[in-house]
Amino acid sequence: MDRTVRAGDDGEDAVTRATRRFRRRDASDLVDDGCEIGVRYAYRAWVEYPGDAGQVTRTPGRTVEVTLTERPRPVRELWAATGDDGATTVSFGAARAGEVRVYASPPGSPWSPGTEEVSLADLDRAASGARVRLVGAGRRRVVDRAGRGAVHYTSVTVVGDRARPGAQLDHQAVGRPTDLAVRPGPGAGEVLLTFELPAGVTEAMVCWRIGESPSGPEDPLAAGGRVTNTKLQIDGGYTVALPPGPDAVLATVYPMVRPAGGRPVAVGQGATVTLRESGAGRVGGAAVSWELRRPTNPFRRTFRVVVRSRSDGGVPGIAVVAAPGTSAPTSLEAGHLMGRAVAGEGRETTVTVDGRALPAATSALAVFLVDGDGRPLHPPGTVEPPVDPTITV
C-alpha cells in the first residue's frame, strides 16, 4: 500500500509528494503513525501475486483520501463581565482548533451535556431537548445581549462534527449603576449620593471607605447600607454621613439581585465615586488649608483667618462662623457669621474677624469653604481663637 501526501485540487491534477510504501504479507490492518494534523493523505491499496510464468502481477487497486483533524479539547476556564449597557462578554482561552460555543440556561436548572466527546448531532439534539439558548460561537469570547439576572453558561468546543463540553460558570448579568453624582447633604458633614440603577434592578448596596474604594460589598473595612429605588426617588438620593478627618472617602454602589426564593445579594461589580477628596477641602482640584493669625499688637481687637491653596487652581470663598460654647458650629446656620471672602485667583485669601463681636464663651470657629452663592463646598475645619480676643495670648 502506498501513502501519498496530496495538495491542490482533487482529481488527476492534484500534486503528489512524499510517497511512503507499506508492505504486509499477512491479512491485517496497517497503522500509519507518521501523519500530521491538517494534511490530506491519499492511500492506494493493491495486491501482488505471482503469475503463471512466474512474473509478479499487481492489481489496479483502490484509492481513498483522508485528512486528519484535531480532536476537540475542552475549555478549562470561563469568565464573564457585564457592561453598563447590560451586555455580558463571556471569555475563554483560545481553542487550538475549531471554535467554542457558549450556551445559556437558568442557574436553578443548569444544562450540563456531560464531559465526554460527542457528535455534533447528539449535542444539538441534547441542547434542543433541554431548551437552552445558544449565545454564540467564537475563538476567544462571545457577547450575550439577551441574558439578564442569574445565568448559567456552558462551553462546548466544536471541531468538524465532533464536540467536547468544557467549563461552566454561574454569572449575574447585571449592568453597573450609572450617573453617579455627589452634592451637599441635608445636614452638617453629610453628602447626598445620586445614581441610576440598571434596568430590572430595584435595590442597591452603598459602601464607602476612607482612603480607597471598597474591595467589594463584603469589605470589612467599609461602612455601608442598602437602599431601594423607591427610597432613592423619595429622598432624592442616598445620604452619607462622612467620617471626620481630612482623608478622602470613596463609595461604590453595588446593584442587588434577588435569586428565586432567596434574599437579595449584592453583585460584585459596582460603580465608584469620590465622596470627599483628600485634604481639608478641594476646589477645582486645589487642596486648601487654613490657619489663625493672632494680632501682634496687644491692644488690637481683630485677628485673621487665612486660607491657602496648595496649587495654582485658585482659592475658594470662605465663611467664618462662631457660636457660644466649646464646639465649633457644624453648619452655616448654626452660628454667627463673623466674616466672608469671595473666591479668587492666587493662593491665599483672608477673613478679618472682630474679636469684640464674638459670642460670649466662644472657644472655636468654623471655617466653611463656599461657592459664589455662599453654599458649603466641604465640611468645616476648625480653628481656635484667642482665649481673650481683645489681646494677644
Count of alpha and pi helical runs: 2
Distance between the termini: 113 Å
Question: Structural class, please?
Answer: mainly beta
Strand order in space, largest sheet: 10-14-13-9-11
CATH class of the largest domain: Mainly Beta
Q: List low-confidence stretches.
A: 11-15, 280-286, 386-393
Can you name the CATH architecture of the largest domain?
Sandwich
Instruction: Write down the Rg.
Output: 38 Å
Description:
By secondary structure, the chain is mainly beta. The chain has 4 domains: 2-67, no CATH class; 78-173, Immunoglobulin-like, CATH 2.60.40; 178-278, Immunoglobulins (Immunoglobulin-like, Sandwich); 282-383, Immunoglobulin-like (Sandwich), CATH 2.60.40. Helices cover 5% and strands 47% of the residues. The protein has helices at 120-130, 229-235, and strands spanning 2-7, 15-21, 40-45, 48-50, 56-58, 62-67, 78-82, 88-92, 99-105, 118-119, 133-138, 141-144, 149-159, 162-173, 178-184, 190-196, 203-210, 223-228, 238-241, 249-257, 265-266, 271-276, 281-283, 286-293, 302-309, 317-322, 336-341, 348-354, 365-370, 376-383. The strands form 8 sheets. It has a 5-stranded antiparallel β-sheet with strand order 10-14-13-9-11. Strands 17, 18, 20, 21 and 22 form a 5-stranded antiparallel β-sheet that branches. A hairpin with a 5-residue loop joins strand 7 and strand 8 (88-92). The longest helix has 11 residues, at 120-130. The model is unreliable at 11-15, 280-286 and 386-393 (pLDDT under 50).
